[in-house]
Amino acid sequence: MTKAVVLLSGGLDSATALAIADAKGFESYALSFRYGQRHRIELESAVRVAQALGVAEHLILDIDLRRFGGPVLTGDLAVPKDRGLEQMGQGIPVTYVPARNTVFLSFALVWAEVLEAGDIFIGVNALDYSGYPDCRPKYITAYERMANLATKLGTEGHRGIRIHAPLIRLTKAQIIRKGMALGLDYGLTSSCYDPDADAHPCRRCDACRLRAKGFAEVGIADPLLAGCGMPAP
Hints:
By secondary structure, this protein is an alpha/beta fold. The chain is 39% helix and 11% strand. Strand 1 (3-7), helix 1 and strand 2 (27-34) form a beta-alpha-beta unit.
């Protein structure tokens, strides 16, 4: 089987990207990060998803982005709540973590070279108001070009390095439908930026609201809420 490194946060999108890699016949090596994020509960979800999908190996690396301070997800500022879709679509959200995907992809590139795996999967999405500059198609294209210039695998490998972003032009509802078609259990995932002490989603942050919008458009209840004993919105 052809090997692939898959970035796995434990969220809905990255879990779907892993399911897609598996469906395409790749032997998946999942990579997650403990980077100082306030929503560390997502790593428990990443472990559950990796086990459920039977990855060849799952690594969780420690890199402390809190040392740089600043951003909401790695700092002490309050997570925005109850924002409307129009507000979410204006500018770059305060939940953006500077250069996070560049950092993550760089670690994935290291592992890919060691494994001699020319394929890396990342669950970035440019629709449904994400607003993050490192989730855009031209960013992925530019990173792939750089990866093929900067590595032995890229310059000497017969296939080079490919960065797969299979969700980048899909809405949240389309992503959910695709994952469900592949048998993915979204009750294993976690999307909330500000879960409570019992790991229950707040249901009010941007990530929770976009997730709820996706399940509402699909017309089914979010299995995560059912698993937490919480009523559907």
